[in-house]
């Protein structure tokens, strides 16, 4: 089957903010906004056919200007998202072309992603229905119920830390997100698909694909990308 694959960049919501007034995607990383890095990576990845950006409504005009300025030719849709992840994705799916058969979702707060990782998640999704970037946690770690009192030691090597990009066949993710609305404690795509389909296929990533949650991590990202 020949798939029509859309990259979906999530650039809104609480998880994409450093503070209530600072959206990660619109902070400067060198000479460009953080958002540019994800758009540029999707632009270079041959597995991605088209790109959608999900952002706050008041940001859409500035994103359109950015797309024109940097020649991001794959960006075809800019869609207003919400503060909650699933509501944002629902808006994205509603605006998605009918021809789209596979989606690759990426958080704008992971600017160090590389085209080959995007490509591997898409290839996995084509074969298995899902492809989720993740890092194996080799060292043991502790589980706490509350505060800083550990109640359980978890053995390293059996657990993986989930990242993005995450690629899914469109019908697989749409059905999982719809089912997740009726359940508590599910607030991300991988958990929704695991609950609905039973499993997701992991794609080995690296700790360098960091999530920027602070100005310190923004500096780390600049160092990893060797941006001055």
* SSE sequence, one letter per element: EEEEEHEHEHEHEEEEHHEH
Global mean pLDDT:
92
> Which structural class do the helices and strands define?
alpha/beta
Number of helices: 7
Q: For the terminal residues, how far apart are their CA atoms?
A: 43 Å
Largest sheet: 7 strands, mixed
Q: Beta-strand percentage?
A: 25-35%
CATH superfamily: Spore Coat Polysaccharide Biosynthesis Protein SpsA, Chain A
Report the radius of gyration as a whole number of Å.
Answer: 17 Å
Q: Count all strands and give the number.
A: 13
The helicity comes to 25-40%
**The CATH topology:** Spore Coat Polysaccharide Biosynthesis Protein SpsA, Chain A
CATH architecture: Alpha-Beta Complex
The parts where pLDDT drops under 50 for at least 5 residues are: none
Give me a quick take on this structure:
By secondary structure, the chain is of the alpha/beta class. Helix content is 34%, strand content 28%.
Describe, in plain words, how this protein is organized in 3D.
There is one protein chain. The chain is an alpha/beta fold. It has a single domain, classed as Spore Coat Polysaccharide Biosynthesis Protein SpsA, Chain A (Alpha-Beta Complex). Helix content is 34%, strand content 28%. It contains seven helices and 13 strands. The protein has helices at residues 34-44, 60-70, 85-95, 115-128, 170-180, 189-197, 215-224; strands at 5-10, 17-19, 22-23, 28-29, 32-33, 50-55, 75-80, 102-107, 130-137, 141-144, 150-154, 159-169, 202-204. The strands form four sheets. Strands 7-6-1-8-12-9-13 form a seven-stranded mixed β-sheet, with helices on both faces. A hairpin with a 5-residue loop joins strand 10 (141-144) and strand 11. Helix 5 (170-180) crosses helix 6. The radius of gyration is 17 Å and the shape is globular.
């Amino acid at each position: 089957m020949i798939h029509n694959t859309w990259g979906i960049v999530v650039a809104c919501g609480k998880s994409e903010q450093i503070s209530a007034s600072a959206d990660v995607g619109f902070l400067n990383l060198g000479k460009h906004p953080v958002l540019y890095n994800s758009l540029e990576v999707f632009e270079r990845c041959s597995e991605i056919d088209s790109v959608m950006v999900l952002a706050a409504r008041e940001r859409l005009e500035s994103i359109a200007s950015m797309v024109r300025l940097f020649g991001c030719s794959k960006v075809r849709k800019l869609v207003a998202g919400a503060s909650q992840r699933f509501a944002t994705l629902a808006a994205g799916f509603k605006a998605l072309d009918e021809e789209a058969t596979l989606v690759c979702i990426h958080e704008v707060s992971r600017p160090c992603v590389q085209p080959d990782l995007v490509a591997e998640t898409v290839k996995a999704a084509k074969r298995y229905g899902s492809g989720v970037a993740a890092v194996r946690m080799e060292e043991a770690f502790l589980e706490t119920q509350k505060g800083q009192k550990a109640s359980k030691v978890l053995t390293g090597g059996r657990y993986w830390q989930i990242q993005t990009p995450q690629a899914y066949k469109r019908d697989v993710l749409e059905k999982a997100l719809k089912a997740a609305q009726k359940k508590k404690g599910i607030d991300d795509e991988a958990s929704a698909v695991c609950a609905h389909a039973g499993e997701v296929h992991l794609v080995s990533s690296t700790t360098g694909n960091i999530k920027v949650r602070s100005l310190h991590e923004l500096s780390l990202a600049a160092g990893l990308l060797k941006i001055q």
